[in-house]
Amino acid sequence: MTPDKSFPPAPAGAPGATNGDLRVDLRLIADMVCPGSRVLDVGCGDGALLQVLAQTKGVDGRGIELSMAGVRAAVRRGVSVIQGNADTDLADYPNGAFDYAILSQTLQATQRPRQVLEQLMRVAERAIVSFPNFGYWKARWHLMSHGRMPVTRGLPEEWWETPNIHLCTLKDFLVLAREMDIVIERGVALNEDGTVTRLPAVGPWANLLSAQAVFLVRRRNGGARPGGAAGPARDADAP
Amino acid sequence: MDAPRNHTTVVGQDRPIRLDNGIEIGPVTVAYQTVGRLNADRSNAILVCHALTGDHHMAGVNPVTGKRGWWDGLVGPGAVLDTNRFFIICPNVLGGCMGTTGPREINPATGRPWGPGFPVITIGDMVTVQARLLDALGIDQVFCVIGGSMGGMQVLEWTSAHPQRVFSAVPIASSYRHSAQNIAFHEVGRQAIMADPDWHGGAYHERGVTPHRGLAVARMTAHITYLSETALHRKFGRRLQDREAVTYGFDADFQVESYLRHQGSTFVDRFDANSYLYITRAMDYFDLATEHGGKLANAFRGTPTRFCVISFSSDWLFPTVESRAIVRALNSVAANVSFVEVDSDKGHDAFLLREPEFHETLRGFLDGAARHRGLPALAEARP
């Protein structure tokens, strides 16, 4: 799910990544996961987060990754990863198969973000979602002053080459979550460099001043799993 | 360094083996190769399942052909299947012709070769015999079952029939069932053998002949399916064989013809025509979904095994979609599965060839699984 990134092969027998090697937003995500839980990392890249979760929290983790380079790197780390796509392959998993589904910097690159969210809430009790904030003042300023699609540190590609086809603001996400009966349990607003801001992620200032955010969400009252357009699990055993 | 050792053992003496077709056979001789050493708690065994025309000579020099084993480069100290860490077992399949009971071997009841009287066998029967071999070796659970093509079918059968005996499993370039196209190619091969006047309804051993022309044609056809169009073109193109121009005849003008004829003629020296019939039939009959009420996922429900499914992008005999179907079924029962499609233009045969990406993936998976199994890490392994 992280297109156009290549993952350097982990040398055989290399020591695993430690918390210190993790991207700041991944470290934040790792902190939100309870020890011993079942985790699905959608768009897991080279599996660094899953490896850390397995090593430090005894997590039973699975990954989905679009790029073959990422998949191979993850398998070499000893992480269970399949080559696949958030838009199509989440349907294969049974209801409630995981405690957490992680979608890190991937939501905005999916074909149907709402359906992906529905699938996340179906396969897991909780989801941890991080994404770049298109409402960040630099993006707004870029658009207003240049009249062109923003190119910032968090959104470095030109419009014609970016994998981010469904960008949204923090507010957009919160509105969708409310519509989908998704409860925000935690939200952390981040700066461009991934450091944590003191701003409440659900408030108006974060929507202007933070470059990205991480949300821990769950279904309201652990209630009925949304069906909707995403529908139930695919009848995967069709063959 | 431990050299590969070839053994034979007899199973099913006290308790005959009941085949899927209801017939009981026994005793059954099993020829197998081992490399490395079984550790004290018998937890480091890897069972390697060979493909249709392979045999148990996976490493070292095959005494029949004088050539290196079919996975020689993958097995050894420090290799992907690291014999410093793992005890590798490769048995010749039931119905084979390299020492395990099969149509070429002597039927103890008659004192003559089984020939066409050999019962029709299945992939499940092959696995049953392998399970008896593990019983005889005192191995309750293997660390990994691994195999390509028909070997991958055995891997899947193992995980389905004996889930508790398989800690991890690697089906490579394989499928949960033979497709119509797969069956069709096999049928062409079988018809070629049976059309050879020297086949004699399968009783050729008694007449001192072999249907070598039919078997060679079967091999030639099959060999084409093992290669990608790209690989075949790269290897031969339209180049002519030892001549400047076409001869306006039916000699092997083209290099590719000469190559296929060579493949056919060397194959008949080492392989039994009846074995070819029986083993191809076993593959055709394989359908793990149908065996489980039409739902492949049922074959894996509650599986404790760690899977790594591997396919090759240019394999048109067992294409990636087949592997994806396995992965989808495993996901639907929340099994522990990794899936990698290796980018290769070498076709189905890629699993037998030097494919660094494939080998690195396999090494990484085995290393990760070994850690979960509590086997010594790389550095701690016996030097």
List keywords for this structure.
A: 239 residues, Rossmann fold, 8 helices, 8 strands, 22% strand, B: 383 residues, alpha/beta, Rna Polymerase Sigma Factor, Chain: A, 2 domains, 8-stranded mixed beta sheet, two-stranded antiparallel sheet, 10 helices, SAM-dependent_MTases_sf (chain A)
Show the helix and strand layout.
The complex is a heterodimer of chains A (239) and B (383).
Chain A: H1 24-32, E1 38-42, H2 48-57, E2 60-65, H3 68-76, E3 80-83, H4 86-89, E4 98-104, H5 113-123, E5 124-132, H6 137-146, H7 170-179, E6 182-190, E7 196-200, H8 204-209, E8 212-219
Parallel strand pairs in A: 1-2, 1-4, 2-3, 4-5
Antiparallel strand pairs in A: 5-8, 6-7, 6-8
Chain B: E1 5-11, E2 17-18, E3 24-25, E4 28-35, E5 45-49, E6 75-76, E7 81-82, E8 87-91, E9 106-107, E10 112-113, H1 123-137, E11 142-148, H2 150-161, E12 166-172, H3 180-195, H4 204-207, H5 212-226, H6 229-236, H7 255-270, H8 273-285, E13 306-312, H9 320-332, E14 336-342, H10 356-373
Parallel strand pairs in B: 5-8, 5-11, 6-7, 11-12, 12-13, 13-14
Antiparallel strand pairs in B: 1-4, 2-3, 4-8, 9-10
Helix pairs in contact in B: 1-2, 3-5, 3-8, 5-7
Walk me through what this model shows.
Chain A: InterPro entries: Methionine_synth_MetW, SAM-dependent_MTases_sf. The complex is a heterodimer of chains A (239) and B (383). With 239 residues, chain A is an alpha/beta fold. Chain A has a single domain, classed as Vaccinia Virus protein VP39 (Rossmann fold), CATH 3.40.50.150. Chain A is 29% helix and 22% strand. In chain A, strands 3-2-1-4-5-8-6-7 form an 8-stranded mixed beta sheet, with helices on both faces. The longest helix of chain A is centred in the middle third of the chain and has 11 residues, at 113-123. Residues 1-19 and 226-231 of chain A have low confidence and may be disordered. Chain B has 383 residues and is of the alpha/beta class. Chain B has 2 domains: 5-178 and 288-380, Rossmann fold (3-Layer(aba) Sandwich); 182-281, Rna Polymerase Sigma Factor, Chain: A (Orthogonal Bundle), CATH 1.10.1740. Chain B has helices at 123-137, 150-161, 180-195, 204-207, 212-226, 229-236, 255-270, 273-285, 320-332, 356-373; strands at 5-11, 17-18, 24-25, 28-35, 45-49, 75-76, 81-82, 87-91, 106-107, 112-113, 142-148, 166-172, 306-312, 336-342. In chain B, helix 3 (180-195) packs antiparallel against helix 8 and helix 5 (212-226) packs across helix 7 (255-270). The model of chain B has no long low-confidence stretch (mean pLDDT 95). Chain A binds chain B through residues 9-10, 12-13, 60, 62, 68, 71-72, 74-84, 89, 92-94, 97, 233-234, 236-237, 239, and chain B through 176-177, 289, 295-298, 306, 308, 325, 327-329, 331-334, 336-341, 343, 357, 360-361, 363-365, 367-369, 371-372, 377-379.
